[in-house]
Design brief:
Mean pLDDT: 92
Shape: elongated
Number of domains: 1
Order of helices and strands: HHEEEHHHHH
Number of helices: 7
Amino acid sequence: MIFFYTIIPAILLSLYAQYKVRSAYSKYSRIASSSHMTGAEVARRILDTNGLFDIRVEEVRGQLSDHYDPQAKVVRLSTDNYHGTSLAGTAIAAHEVGHAIQDSEGYAFLRFRHALVPVANFGSKAAFPLILAGLIFSQFQSLLLLGIVFFSAAVLFQIITLPVEFNASSRAMQLVVAQGFIRNEEERGTRKVLDAAALTYVAAAAAAVLELVRLIYIYRSSN
């Protein structure tokens, strides 16, 4: 029964989030912004306005592969967003620059997330072999518990990601309005793109928490 209360909702929420982000992106990537600036130009303008002249803006292959690399100090935009002048591209470019601004300001949640990366990576890799061993060999329940502890680090990373992403989207919305990249009637579409993107992180965090709940339930039941 615990399967239906955890795994099924997680799958449904994940599918819904993917649908929303692709639907919003598909719609607003076909609508040009009033500024007619490419995503690369928007990103460069915002970076320069905030004194971040050392941060580069580069093109990266793939769709919705946009991200900010804090190690290389690079904002990477997917091809369509880098060269395109759409509302979606403007929103996403501003969002990724929002992460660069967070980095330059030492935003607490971003710093915490960066610090968690090696712990979360190790935890996610080590967790499931331990959990599987604990489930197969019932006499070694301590392995299951240890796997749950490691998995908790990955869950914490997903949770900490939420305020980082929401803050970057909030910054993006303020920036594109303040710098005149969009007009009043374009705000709704821009916000829809940002909200849809944020929903994917909510879905990932919810799925991780539900999986953790399921594992804890299995451990308690086995004891």
